[in-house]
Amino acid sequence: MNDLDRIFGEGGSTKINAKTIEDIGKRLSKAGKRLHEQGLVIGSSGNISARIPGTETFLIKPSGARMEFLKPEELVLVDLQGKKVRGELDVSLETPMHAATYRARRDVQAVVHTHPPTATAFGIAKTEVLPLQIEMFMRFPNGVPVVPFEAPGSKALAETVQKKIASCDALILENHGIITVGSTIEAACDLSEMVEEAAKIQFLVTILASKDTVNLEKLKQKFKTESNIE
Ligand SMILES: [Zn+2]
Questions:
Q1: pLDDT level of residue 226 (50, 70, 90 thresholds)
Q2: Annotated catalytic, 88?
Q3: How many whole angstroms separate alpha carbon 105 and alpha carbon 155?
């Protein structure tokens, strides 16, 4: 019995469409390049994964691989407990955090973890990113919270993220980076870029304007009265 049969039952390997895995692998590879080009990760930092639809598995970046050079065939297939099902290389260090996120959110199809400089600085300063700009408000009306520091790759980090990701599609990890989720790989990447952009804007606003400008309650009043956003 091969690995896939073991996890999906006899004949399971044929239930997973090889073409689907190949297509998801190509999209993850493209997304890795994009995240690197946007300056959200450097070197081998950050990781990315995507659920294989209709299965209890996901594909994830291998440990030590560089996002900009991710090869679809190098990606590792793991189950929702984070155990390797198929692949030559070791799984990403943050596999427990990805697995915990998929367990917490049945709707999530992709998880992106990056270290964007500005949003990461907000995490170090224990400062949440607020929805100062209208599109950000429409997506994150309560802003993006900072979750307390836990060691990278640890069970404690996975548990902390699992609790908080249930109610928010993006989190800042204190003294570490950010994590975003989406219904597609591309949507999770969009959010990673969006959080970094919002952090840059907030940083500039705190220099340019008074403290009242970065007050969440005042923002809610303003956007609701001016744009009729529910
Ligand atoms: Zn990290």
A1: low
A2: no
A3: 18
The residues placing their C-beta within 5 Å of ligand 1, an ion, are 177
pTM of this prediction?
0.91
Please tell me the distance between residue 134's alpha carbon and the centre of ligand 1 in angstroms: 29
pLDDT tens digit string along 97-109?
999 999 999 999 9
Examine the pLDDT at 86 and tell me if it is beyond 60. yes
How much distance in Å is there from the Cα of 23 to the middle of ligand 1? 25
Total domains in the fold of the chain? 1
- Asked if residues 195 and 170 have their Cβ atoms less than 8 Å apart, the reply is yes
pLDDT of 211: 81
How far apart are the C-alpha atoms of 25 and 77, rounded to whole Å?
A: 10
Q: Give the contacts of 142 (CB within 8 A, at least 6 positions apart).
A: 131, 168, 216
> What is the C-alpha to C-alpha distance for residues 158 and 97, in angstroms, rounded to an integer?
4
Give Cβ neighbours of residue 184 (< 8 Å, ≥ 6 apart): 109, 110
What's the gap in Å between 178 CA and the centre of ligand 1? 8
Q: Is the pLDDT of residue 190 over 60?
A: yes
CATH of the domain at 169: 3.40.225.10
Residue 25 lies in domain: 3-227
Residue 4: pLDDT band by 50, 70, 90 thresholds? Answer: low
The residue annotated as part of the active site, out of 94, 150, 193, 197, is 94
